[in-house]
Design a protein that fits this description.
The protein is built from 32 helices and two strands. The chain is an all-alpha fold and 758 residues long. Pathway: Protein modification; protein glycosylation.
């Protein structure tokens, strides 16, 4: 029921509490909202947060999940656990120049545990953990918002009082059901943001516990301050934003614990007024706690810097075009425009996109661009809020607005481009923590409106409507994150100028075999970004498969001209040149690819095919051997070695290679088939038969398997079995080369035997 009653958990008169001798204004007095006992408030928040994202539980691995999870060797049991502390989030060495320097070992550790418990890459377990984490964080937000909105007060028994049960519930519901959180919850890679947020909140709550035993206003627990610093360090080991909680703890301490008037304090400090000491900064231990927080933060940052090894990560212009602009004015204007877009996503999270780079947001290059209005609106609001936070005579208003702005801005600073270049334009995941500040400001604004409104229930119904719309938007958006096809297509209407969106739609279509549609999207990606080498490479690959070799060569040549170290494009160019019978150029392209990527088994495999076509058998065998050394499970390279040795009469060597290959890849039916052929020629019929039958069991519809087994039986003299397998082979492939002739020979032989027998 919607109610206007006072806090149901207000302290009894007999209970003494040591914080705030005089009662402060309470937002709960002014709003018409649900009043629930603490337990049920948390149950409701957990339920709503679960309903918002529950339909993502059976989603696939999508977008960045492939690189961070499926292709990340740090998740596999054979990788030593110690490597996690020297690798970045994507599994690359931090010392590498190509590393993104995103150091999140604890997040990767949770992925590894997920992988081990599931027994492989099954996304359900990963998604379930993400949903549970968001529900847990949303429940913790009830306590966090009760402190931020209602203040920190304890009974003489050390029990914290919730002085804002209605507003803390509203703010927690707004947080739990905010659609901008979908990327963090429904995208498995968002685990980093969720874990960071969990320890971020635990650090804040731990810091609040430092004042639980404070009986006279000047005692505090050093232990809990240090625990808070430790939890902040753990948050940073989950994602870099976690370190910002130490700054927020300092802001909270100054405003809530010490009731510092920031503007007044600055004025006294500038005047070198001796009355500064009377503000209570030194008396209440604020300076000592600030020293602990700053020392802890500096130590954490120093260790992080030492671990990172080399300089900052190297991003490209397409990742963050504004940061590459020559003009400081252009950079500043566009950074501020990006901030306004982030603010808009918090206010109106309707247009959401998995990627905002590559032309999605064209650069603002002059003040005549109408988008300047967005910057003006952002700073008009921010300056207004900052002035109220600093200059208002109402201490409660100053505190709420400063905390709201602090939680909105401080966690966003690592993504702001102010201290270092980031690898994105806008990223919905990075406003998971800043949305806490938004929820505080929204709730405070709602209380001010309620205070002025005559019909408070209408306002409450409007806010309920916003919550309902957000829940439905979360459900819709999380369903889009269930598969790459839905996710990529949903972005076409939001960012039609984003070349990466078209590229990803095309790649998804190509993976499903729809090459004609994929070509259309790849061409659009190249049109939008004429330097998009990955789109050129993939388009060239498809054209190569469709035998449109001339255009394929042009595209791949352009790709390596734009990015000379693009190894995959060099290899694909070599394949095209090989098909055009320009063998010398193809060989040069293959070696260039290997020069730029030393461990490139597929390139060695293709180089071996080139040498085989040129009858350079020794070179071909060496190339394929290199491929299998780099990638022991490279079945095609093993097969080609066996077949080449078989065709050149080196049966003993072919048999040895075949046995070596099957030891490494025991369930590969194509290797069984190739080795069975060699054994049959060596008259090891029994062993050859066993391998043929095993290969057929694994792949019963392969006409050549039945045909060659029939030949074995034909040689061996098992004519009835030979006849049976010839017939199966012809049934599967009536045009199988040689099979019909062998079958006719067998039939004539059987007829002759019947005549002799008759």
């Amino acid at each position: 029921q919607i109610c206007n009653q006072h806090n149901a958990e207000a302290p009894n008169l007999e209970e003494a509490f040591h914080r705030m001798a005089l009662p402060e204004p309470n937002l709960d007095h002014d709003i018409s909202w649900f009043l629930l006992p603490p337990y049920w408030a948390k149950v409701v928040v957990a339920l709503i947060s679960f309903l918002c994202f529950a339909n993502s539980y059976d989603g696939d691995f999508v977008f960045d999940d492939s690189e961070a999870i499926i292709n990340n060797k740090d998740l596999r049991a054979e990788t030593p656990l110690g490597d996690l502390w020297h690798h970045d989030f994507w599994g690359s060495k931090l010392s590498s120049n190509t590393s993104h320097k995103s150091y999140r070992p604890l997040t990767v550790l949770t992925f590894r545990i997920n992988y081990l418990f599931a027994g492989g890459f099954y996304p359900v377990g990963f998604h379930v953990i993400n949903i549970i984490l968001h529900c847990t964080i949303s429940v913790l937000m009830v306590d966090v918002f009760s402190i931020l909105l209602g203040g920190l007060q304890f009974t003489n028994k050390g029990r914290r009082l919730n002085l804002a049960p209605k507003t803390s519930l509203l703010a927690a519901l707004l947080f739990a059901a905010h659609p901008v959180h979908t990327e963090c919850v429904a995208g498995i890679v968002g685990r980093a943001d969720l874990l960071c947020a969990l320890f971020f909140l635990l650090s804040f709550l731990g810091y609040c516990k430092a004042f639980r035993e404070n009986k006279e206003g000047h005692n505090f627990s050093v232990f809990w301050v240090l625990v808070s610093v430790l939890l902040g360090a753990i948050a940073m080991l989950c994602k870099e934003q976690g370190i910002t909680i130490l700054g927020l703890n300092a802001v909270f301490d100054a405003l809530v614990i010490n009731k510092l008037n920031v503007l007044e304090f600055i004025q006294k400090l500038l005047r070198k007024d001796k009355l500064v000491e009377n503000t209570g900064v030194l008396r209440k231990g604020l300076l000592f706690r600030m020293t602990l927080l700053m020392s802890g933060g500096a130590g954490i940052l120093y260790i992080r810097w030492r671990i990172m090894g080399t300089g900052p990560p190297a991003f490209t212009e397409v990742d963050n075009p504004a940061s590459f602009a020559d003009s400081l004015f252009v950079r500043a204007i566009n950074y501020n425009y990006y901030y306004s877009l982030n603010a808009w996503l918090l206010l109106c999270p309707w247009w959401l996109c998995f990627d905002w780079s590559m032309g999605c947001i064209p650069l603002i290059k002059s003040v005549s661009d109408w988008r300047i209005i967005a910057l003006a609106a952002l700073w008009f609001c921010l300056i207004g809020l900052i002035c109220q936070a600093l200059c208002s005579e109402d201490s409660y208003k100053r505190r709420i607005l400063t905390l709201g702005l602090g939680f909105l801005i401080i966690p966003f600073l690592p993504a702001s481009n102010l201290f270092f270049r980031v690898g994105f334009v806008v990223a919905e995941r990075v406003i998971y923590l800043p949305s806490i500040g938004y929820c505080i400001l929204f709730t405070y604004g709602f209380s001010l409106l309620s205070k002025q409104a005559k019909k408070k229930k209408i306002l409450a119904v409007a806010v309920l409507g916003i919550l309902l719309i957000n829940v439905m938007r979360c459900a819709l958006r999380s369903s889009q994150w269930r598969s790459e096809e839905q996710l990529f297509r949903s972005a076409l209407s939001v960012c039609p100028l984003n070349a990466k969106v078209h590229y990803n739609v095309g790649k998804n279509l190509a993976d499903k075999g729809n090459q004609s549609a994929a070509i259309k999207y790849y061409r659009e990606a190249v049109r939008l970004n004429p330097k998009y080498v990955h789109a050129m490479n993939n388009l060239g690959n498809i054209l190569k498969e469709r035998n449109e070799l001339q255009e394929a060569e042009e595209l791949l040549s352009l790709a390596v001209q734009i990015q000379p170290d693009f190894a995959a494009a060099w290899m694909n160019l070599g394949i095209v040149q090989n098909s055009l019978r320009r063998f010398e150029e193809a060989e040069q392209s293959y070696w260039t690819a290997i020069k730029h990527r030393k461990k490139y088994p597929d390139c060695y495999y293709n180089l071996g095919r080139l040498y085989a076509d040129l009858n350079r058998h020794i070179d071909a065998l060496n190339a394929w051997r290199n491929a299998t050394v780099l990638k022991p499970e490279h079945s095609l390279a093993w097969n080609n070695m066996i077949i080449l040795l078989d065709n050149t009469g080196n049966l003993a060597q072919a048999e040895a290679v075949g046995r070596e290959a099957l030891e490494l890849i025991p369930n590969d039916h194509s290797l069984m088939f190739s080795l069975a052929n060699v054994l049959g020629k060596s008259q090891k019929y029994k062993e050859s038969e066993a391998l043929f039958l095993k290969a057929i069991k694994a792949n019963p519809n392969a006409a050549s398997y039945h045909g060659n087994l029939a030949v074995l039986y034909h040689r061996w003299g098992n004519l009835d079995l030979a006849k049976k397998h010839y017939e199966v082979s012809l049934k599967l492939d009536p045009m199988a080369p040689g099979t019909k002739e062998n079958y006719n020979l067998l039939r004539r032989k059987l007829e002759q035997l019947q005549k002799k027998g008759g």
